[in-house]
Amino acid sequence: MHGEASETYVAEALALQSVMHSEDAPQKIARGLSAQIAAAAPAYAALAFEAEPASFLAAMEREQA
Amino acid sequence: MSGGLHTLTLTEVAAKIRAREASCAEVLDAVLARAQAVQPHLNAFLRVDEELARAQAKVADAELAQGRTRGPLHGVPLAHKDMYYRAGVPSSCGSKIRGKEPEQTTATALQRLDAAGAIQFGVLNMAEFAYGPTGHNSHFGHCRNPWHTAHITGGSSSGAGAAVAARATFAALGSDTGGSVRLPAAMCGVTGLKVTYGRISRAGAMPLSFSMDTVGPLARSAADCALLLGVMAGPDPADPTASREPVPDYVARLHRPVKGLRIGVPLNYFTDDVDPGVGAALTESLKAIESLGCEIVPVTLPDMTAIDVAGTHVIAAEAAACHGNWMRTRPQDYSRQVRARLERGLALPATKYIDALRYRGPALEAFTKAVFAKVDLLHAPCLPIPTPTIAETDIGGSPTMDRTLALLTKFTRPLNYLGLPALAVPCGFLASGMPVGMQLVGRPFAEDLILRVGHAFQQATEWQQREPRI
């Protein structure tokens, strides 16, 4: 469902934000990022089209003690 | 060591001062002496403001002599994690980058403690920018666990955990974004309260992840946490996320009965990777809670791994945004670990961050439906493993370091993402002599309930009374 983040992607994402990456960052981040995105992918994919961040505050109010 | 004024709980020492059985100056002397004695072993304090504190104690004693008290913390000396701003004083935030210039404002939490009569006598060590679960700090030196100085304190409120456990402060403010109050509380054998998101104003507290940051106390008992929460909780014009939910009398509610309450025990997630010794302590704590008349109810949780990962996405993106300017201009001034974490956040696609925020409401609903439809609160370990050593969790320290670090926050971070309150309570010791902590998790704004059960547990057990021999 999700591809692998490449070292090039990570290096360019940081460069785009004018951040100089540390020595082994692109390799390490690429590996970790891919795994993290894959772990959350089913949950995110199940979200309704209309789901929005404010639903959290509404849920907090509904569920409070 | 036992028997000095510094060994009293916050509640006890405040009462002693009010009754004029001990002067504010005497109490401060005892705490300063204790702080000085343990500092070479623990590195818990980043600064002690002895002269200023003594002057304030003198004023507090004069007020008492005139029959006046400022509030429930009159004359009680406290030290806090060095990320709560006080006007005119620099805050290092555990970093090389901050701490050179005096702050312009005073944190609302500090203002409220001041108004209640507390005297701040120092600031405490912490993970750099509160972004680390161990207590390592390469700029100021690692903080050390009072139960065994080769072990980590837990972080990021490392100095708070160590100093409270060592009886070098009666309580301390920490902060909890992914476990930073509960982890040092559990690893140092003290009580720590992670509040509902918005329960205590964050104004004047260093931000890490604005939608997950919470301010919270570490102290020697649930009763002490209740007292501090009552002083600090409530709306604040300086923090739009501070809740307007009424603030109950948390101390009075400690004494309500717990008999008949339903305590949930997770059948999944919080059972994964649990060390046998930690598991045995948790089982014993459940027996103690059951003996109070509570009903133990097994509960199956929803997909907590997805909830944990979503929490990771939120913290990574929000922290990277906060630190973006310094990451561009001063990357060399970050420690290797914190810089690496921030780089990861900078590479996270914006859509994944937004997805994590969109998932939060449904995730909270799924969790509350699975848990709080059946029970009043949830009982779980704070962390699955025994407290590791400083060496084991340092860069290159062990082949299993990455896994160990991931396990440290596995049981705490999901609750930050869900915004729920949780109380870390000492619940036993391992054969190694290191403490074990459980957490009691409640519905949003159910701090009174988790404090009540924590207090009842502490009346029936004695784990929180044990003092490290340092």
Q: In summary, what is this structure?
A:
The complex is a heterodimer of chains A (65) and B (470). Chain A is an all-alpha fold and 65 residues long. Chain A has helices at residues 7-16, 25-45, 55-63.
User: What is the H/E order of chain A?
Assistant: HHH
> For this entry, what is the oligomeric state of its chains?
heterodimer
Number of helices of chain B: 15
Morphology of chain A = elongated
CA-CA gap between termini of chain B: 9 Å
So how many helices of chain A? 3
| Gross morphology of chain B | globular
Largest sheet of chain B: 8 strands, mixed
Instruction: Kindly state the percentage of residues in helix of chain B.
Output: 25-40%
Spatial strand sequence of the major β-sheet of chain B: 4-6-5-10-11-9-7-8
Low-pLDDT stretches of chain B are none
Taking the alpha carbons of the first and last residues of chain A, their distance comes to 39 Å
Structural class of chain B: alpha/beta
Residue-averaged pLDDT of chain B: 97
Work out the helicity level of chain A. 55-70%
Rg of chain B, nearest Å: 21 Å
- What is the SS-derived class of chain A? mainly alpha
Q: Got a strand count of chain B? A: 11
Question: Any overview of this molecule?
Answer:
The complex is a heterodimer of chains A (65) and B (470). The longest helix of chain A has 21 residues. Chain A is 62% helix and 0% strand. By secondary structure, chain A is an all-alpha fold. The N and C termini of chain A lie far apart (39 Å). With 470 residues, chain B is of the alpha/beta class. The longest helix of chain B is centred in the last third of the chain and has 26 residues. Chain B is globular and about 60 Å long. Chains A and B meet through helix 1, helix 2 and helix 3 of A and helix 10, helix 11 and helix 12 of B.
List keywords for this structure.
heterodimer, A: 65 residues, mainly alpha, elongated, B: 470 residues, alpha/beta, 8-stranded mixed β-sheet, 3-stranded mixed β-sheet, 39% helix
